[in-house]
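QA checklist item 7 of 12: single-chain prediction sanity check.
[x] sequence parsed
[x] length recorded as 279
[x] structure emitted
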Amino acid sequence: MPRTSTRKKTSTTPRRTSRKAKARTRTMPNWLRNLLALAIVALFSVVFYYFVIRPYSYRWKECNGRKEYGVCIPCGYDVHGIDVSHYQGDIDWETLQANRETDFPLHFIFMKATEGGDHGDDTFKSNFNKARDYGFIRGAYHFFTPKTDALKQADFFIRTVKLKSGDLPPVLDVELSGNRSKGELQKSIKRWLDRVEAHYGVKPILYTSYKFKTRYLNDSLFNEYPYWIAHYYVDSVKYEGKWHFWQHTDIGTVPGINHDVDLNVFNGSLDELKKLTIR
């Protein structure tokens, strides 16, 4: 019996010690746990600011009395406008027309007409007609898809959009590269511009962001087109070249429209805007 008792003690003691040792090796040190927690909090804070706070920070910025449509209005511009698509839903045009009598009257409206080679915006026809009926200077734009033949896209836009005297030139909205090389993308865009210019007899307006323009369309041949720059959450345009329109925010709140809307300014007077329209 004594021998058996002794064997049990010696056989179980090493096992208990082994489990404790394993537990100690698996436990994360407090300093490492705290460091990891701080890293997670920091990452979450950056993501939260970038996606939640930053896009709406312009709403809370001190504007020195120049605040309208829920955002700071850029200084030094008298001609304001918006651009809309089906994302804005049904528009109350009588209420929207009243915005022409505010301190920052809306004079022009761009409307999405087409995308790619066969996708038309459901609200375009109605919005385009009503914009003219309610006295706005109107324009139409095409959203360019790099992987679709440029001439097919141009012809689709031409079939869809019937521009008249007093309308703004057609607009090409370029936001995607489609994994194409810079040269291929530029060639495709130029084909669309040439076909549309030949049909309407006026140079199209080129819409793209500041970064996209400087990265993909910095060739001088694109500088001959009126430029509509998308550049958000800044006090002034940083682009050093010539530009005509500036889309300065995508979170405007305009009476008559139930959803956020893009706000724009024209870089000139109302008379100069009218001179840009089709004769």
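[x] summary fact logged: The mean pLDDT is 89.
[ ] second reviewer sign-off
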